[in-house]
Amino acid sequence: MYKKINALILTATIIYIIIFGIYFLNIGNLEFLWYVGILTLLTILMILLHKKFNFSSLVLAGSSLWGLLHMFGGSIYINGTRLYSYVLLDIYNSNIPEMQILKYDQFMHLYTYFVVTFILFYVIKDYLKKDDFVVYVLLVFMAMGVGAANEIVEFIPVVFFGNTGVGGYYNTLLDIVFNTIGSIVALIYIKISDNNQRA
């Protein structure tokens, strides 16, 4: 049952990677062609990690959904604004355009590192005690480390392709903040689930 679900998740992921790869190639969007390449490598990495750590179908589906939402962010426009820059909720606004909260980009960072934290948890759970506070602190810092790598990946197309819409200093720091929030939310969920299982 689970193998069939996981196979469907992988198949769906491969299909949308191919579709968006063709789409971004046709419109000449080099920035998101780069991301399609990164997404392909991440999919291969997840396959290899899954063989070793046996992720749940929810974690695999969450990872696949991240990729799909990321592709949507670069291809969908609402009233002329690319989805990644679109304000989902006007929670905070200032005279600095990059300080608008909550944009789709910020939601995506929160969601992404919610999922990343679950992946990291699966990787280390057999080596460390789940109820150890230190484990939770380490997981947050591990997720932040992955976030730093993500910012480097975002920086490369800025260097080579020029104006990508990635944003500047404020955007980068907000990304880090929302990465951390997503990680903490995931850890709270993990802790509550663990306590319920024990009860």
Main beta-sheet annotation: 2 strands, antiparallel
> How many helical stretches?
6
Shape: globular
Reading the helices and strands in chain order gives: HHHEEEEHHH
| Widest sheet, order of strands | 1-2
Structural class: mainly alpha
Percent helix: over 70%
Poorly predicted runs are none
Strand content: 5-15%
Q: Would you give an account of this structure?
A:
This protein is mostly helical. The chain is built from six helices and four strands. The chain has helices at residues 2-27, 30-53, 57-75, 104-124, 133-161, 169-198, and strands at residues 77-78, 81-82, 87-92, 101-103. The chain is globular.
Q: How do you describe this structure in short?
A:
With about 200 residues, the protein is mainly α.
Layout of helices and strands:
Elements: H1 2-27, H2 30-53, H3 57-75, E1 77-78, E2 81-82, E3 87-92, E4 101-103, H4 104-124, H5 133-161, H6 169-198
Antiparallel strand pairs: 1-2, 3-4
Describe this protein with a few key phrases.
199 residues; mainly alpha; two-stranded antiparallel sheet; 7% strand
